From TrEMBL:
Tree of life domain: Bacteria
Organism (species): Streptomyces smyrnaeus
Coiled-coil intervals: none
Name of the protein in its database record: HpcH/HpaI aldolase/citrate lyase family protein
InterPro entries cross-referenced by the UniProt entry: C-C_Bond_Lyase-like, Pyrv/PenolPyrv_kinase-like_dom, Pyrv_kinase-like_dom_sf
Molecular-function annotations in GO: lyase activity
Annotated SUPFAM superfamilies: Phosphoenolpyruvate/pyruvate domain
Matches recorded under Pfam families: C-C_Bond_Lyase
Keywords: Lyase, Magnesium, Metal-binding
Cofactors: Mg(2+)
Record has Secreted as a keyword: no
Phylogenetic lineage: Bacteria, Bacillati, Actinomycetota, Actinomycetes, Kitasatosporales
Amino acid sequence: MRHFRQLTPERRSALFHREPIEFTSDAPASTLAVALGATLYSPATRPALADDVLKQAARGVVSMVLCLEDSIADAEVPAAEDNLVRQLCELADRIPDRVAEDELPLLFVRVRESGQITALVRRLGAAVRLLSGFVLPKFTEDHSVPFLEALTEAEAACGRRLFAMPVLESPELLHRETRTQALTGISRTLDKYRDRVLALRLGVTDFCAAYGLRRTPEMTAYDVQIVASVIADVVNVLGRADGTGFTVTGPVWEYFRPQERMFKPQLRQSPFLSSRAEDVRAALIEHDLDGLLREIELDRANGLLGKTCIHPSHVAPVHALSIVSHEEFCDATDVLRPERGGGGVLRSAYTNKMNEVKPHRAWAERTLLRGEVFGVAREGVSFVELLAAGVK
């Protein structure tokens, strides 16, 4: 696997100062958690699920969730399970060797009940080699243990490493009077099963539902103050950079079709002055992706990495804005130079900011890891060019 492998070598060379690394599903969890990027969700009821996985892999998708929970009706679950098993077995038959297997996205199944984990692993047989793990719904201290124990049992049965991606979406996290207790309990559970947890996902749609809210395409999750406060507290407790935290991924962006706007587009015209760039800007606005771009930037500013996606058009913007800029790379490498181990302050190579070695060290380490996985842009390459490489 490799981010942006859908681009030609010549195009990658023109865009990147350092190209993204190649990795496999056996890579360290620290690498895979960053590499998730735009995690594309797909209902397990889709009749051509195997073809969908191959098609999205060719388009640059690196992680997918095959969903047996909220994306399908309750009555569809048995048929969805049958279809999932059938499609993954078919996909395994079409993947002849490990080289081809490593070109597939990281595949996860979102379950409803803990028993589905062991049952699906048993039914998949040899095709379980295509799975990287399971997405665990409504994760709380009380609700989570059966899922994590089932994951442990399934892993032992199939002899393959299987990761958990808990979804934080329960009302206990939202309500002020129970939030601290809920986060403390989740932290205890996650610490006990730390080696099995790849990343934490945020169920912002469920948070909004608890109060009958829904944000418009012009509003990010951070404009809904009650949601923003939960995100802040989750990162505060579970996303720390002191070695105790986990990767927390950004919330889903719900919009992908044009509709009437109440507000002006949020993308400034000045970065899109060329005719090709203006076409990119028009495409982003047409598909309501200008709000998505703003939310991605706010995700990172608030300690989140990667994003839940429900439409393929969201993948390219998420990945383009995950690339480390040349300026970020220069700042991070300066901060981490061995001779800077004693601390101090230095002027940035771009002469536009202060880099303080000790306070910026954790940021620099995270930035360079992101640069390994998503690449480092060449000097002078703008985010517009990176977007243009992937936006259709």
